[in-house]
Amino acid sequence: MDVLSDVLRAVHLTGAVYFDITARQPWVAATPPVASICGKVMPGFDHVIAFHIMLDGWCWAQLADESQPEVRLEAGDAVVFVRGDAHFMSTEPGERAAPDFGIYYRPNDRPLPFIFNEFGGSGEKSRFVCGYLGCDARPFNPILDALPPILHVKHSSVGGQLTHDLIRLALQEKENPRAGGETILSKLSELMFLQAVREYIESLPRESTGWLAALRDRQIGAALRLMHGRPAEAWTLDSLAREVGLSRSVFAERFADVMGTPAMHYLGNWRLQLAGRLLASQGMSIAQAAAEVGYESEASFNRAFKKQVGVPPGAWRRARRPASPS
Residue 312: what are its φ and ψ, rounded to 5°? Predict the structure, then answer.
């Protein structure tokens, strides 16, 4: 079981490339807090991540609150704003501008991306694409809290270069559009995000803790693969510890130390996420979804779901149905 891939599927990660921009120095582009535009750009998702990929030229990228250092992007680099914070892209460090809220909508009469040419001044050209990744934040998404606010994928990495080249190739179709071009770009943005997460995992110090660090831990990673591979099984601390070759007490302590949460608590949260997807996308009854992920009774599932999400599963499903993405 590939745990990272399993989570990305279960949280319904979906990408969209929105803008193909050619700019001349000096230029500055502002992105508002994604929460203020998510209903327009990625309707139906709990959380939206912004990203930019530099095709030609260079620029600086920085959070609006300046809580993180500026990132210099070279041609082929990508930057991901995991929290969806307001941010700026510019050729002059510290440059600011007001966002244009009118450009954020999903068109009905033509495919994405929108094309903007000759944006900015009259100097050297830059070209970059901007887009969004939508995903579930509830009932449970362990990736979002495990990542920093900004991820920088450098062109020098194998995955970064591949993504850059494929996106450039896909954008060439705008002159002679072919069926499926928008979907190709969306899948490439998802590939870029996966590469960013993988590079971040590989950069973590050996003593790191948290969900991403746990993926590469021999025993805790093995326990996660068991939980994700057979989530409905009646796992206990004893059975998980036995499977990964540790005593019950050592396993319980080590899991909590590395993950920051007890093993059974994590398993319960993950079951709720799977049940939530079954309720939202497959139209199962609450009792069926509860049984599918290992709950012995609908009542216990209802209690756990309401405690985690804040509303009962039936109310949660009814609230999501009108906004579910196609």
Answer: -65, 155
Q: Which residue ranges make up each domain of the chain?
A: 3-203, 212-323
| Prior bond of 26 cis (ω within 30°) | yes
Local structure of 147: helix, strand or coil = coil
Are 104 and 98 a contacting pair, CB within 8 Å? no
Model confidence pTM above 0.85: yes
* Residues 259-287 pLDDT 10s: 999 999 999 999 999 999 999 877 789 99
Residue with tokens 């300046």: 66
Q: Side-chain half-sphere of 324: how many Cα atoms within 13 Å?
A: 16
Which of 186-190, 224-228, 277-281, 309-313 has the lowest average pLDDT? 277-281
In whole angstroms, give the CA distance from residue 274 to residue 235.
Answer: 16
pLDDT at 322: 47
CATH architecture of 212-323: Orthogonal Bundle (1.10)
DSSP structure string for 32-99: --GGGTHHHHSTT-SEEEEEEEEEES-EEEEETT--S--EEEPTT-EEEETT---EEEESSTT-----
Residue 323 has pLDDT above 50, yes or no: no
Could you tell me the pLDDT band of residue 218, with boundaries at 50, 70 and 90? very high
Whose structure tokens read 């950069």?
203
CATH number of 3-203: 2.60.120.10
- The whole-number average pLDDT for the span 81-90 is 96
14, two tokens: 């979906």
Contact 226, 266 (CB under 8 A): no
